[in-house]
Amino acid sequence: FFSSDENLTKQTRTVECIFERSIIYEGLPIHFDAHIGYARLSGDDRREVVNRAESASEYAREMGMRSALYTSAMALDKRQNLILMGGLLDALHSAELTLHFQPKINLKTGQLVGFEALSRWQHPTLGNVPPDRFIPLIERTALIHAFSLWAIETALIKFNSFRKQGVLTVVAVNLSSHNLINDEFPKQVIHLLDKYNVDSCYLEFEITESEIMRNPEKAIEVLKELSGMPISISIDDFGTGYSSLAYLHKLPATQIKIDRSFIQDINHDSGLRKIVSAAIVLAHSLGMKVVAEGVETEDQYRLLERLGCDSAQGYLIARPMPEDQILKWFEQWVAPSLTADLYEA
Question: Is domain 83-344 in CATH 3.20.20.450, yes or no?
Fold first, then answer.
């Protein structure tokens, strides 16, 4: 029971600090994660209070928050979740779900080095549903397996379409931790590559640090099988996890993607510059390439180029776009650093 908002804030911070600490197990740092929901006591029966706290906990998990206090808006979110869950299976077999593609370019040459495939859902009644709204829901169910295979298959279909238009490049698809504990997953990937006659070198899988750390030993086993095909493996949101440095040298990854939170203020924060520079040196020492996410300004672009970052992705280059806009972007794109070089010449 919390007698005031101030008391709630203090107690919440105390609990959060406990979960911020890692423990050492057999020489490895292990981090425990938790999402906490709170509800005010307001004369309702205990079951209702518990239900509200559970709703707040679910909200915190979906939003990537450590804790959340229940509000009436969460009840609406819960109702919408039920609507979304009910429509997911139909969406997988209709035109509601689509893929958009965001380019990744070489920082030195400005050349296209790949696309990241990002899912989009146009719900018939709720309208445009952002990925961070429906993907966490999918990951709670067995539908995550069908969804991942849908994303890979759709990406391969679009790859062949790009190839016919003269755009030949790697297409990256995001994976879930559920894929990395499924022994059948590598075989399913091989089947899809054969079905669409796509060389495995043009397919890339992105997986976040936190997803790998759910079951690192099993994840490494499956990732090694995938990389042996060979398929490129990219560690997404690098720097936001807790324990992956202990495993990084074991991962069969070909690149890391530095999270946008490190890029946003990199031109104004010397500490961030040092962190990004160190990450680039570390990755290169392990034979990996480095991609910077969330590049939005020319200053960021040029600084990352000077730091030795290999490639970039972000709104400066292009927002995620549907297939029919790819060719137009490809024909018009000119890298900021190259534009500056031409101007100086």
Answer: yes
Task: Count Cβ atoms below 10 Å from residue 125 Cβ, excluding itself.
Answer: 7
Task: Look at residues 82, 39, 79 and name the one whose alpha carbon lies nearest to residue 57.
Answer: 39
The single residue listed with the structure tokens 């380019």 is 103
Q: In sequence order, what E strands does 124-262 have?
A: 127-129, 170-174, 203-208, 232-238, 255-258
Helix (H) or strand (E) holding 216: helix 216-227
Q: Report the pLDDT value the prediction gives residue 43, as an integer from 0 to 100.
A: 61
- Measured CA to CA, the distance from residue 287 to residue 268 in angstroms comes to 29
The ranges assigned to domains in the chain are 5-70, 83-344
Q: Give the whole-number percent of the chain exceeding pLDDT 90.
A: 51
Global pTM reads 0.78
Residue 304's nearest CA partner among 235, 258, 342 is 258
Q: What's the full length of the chain, in residues?
A: 345
Dump pLDDT digits (tens) for 311-320: 999 999 999 9
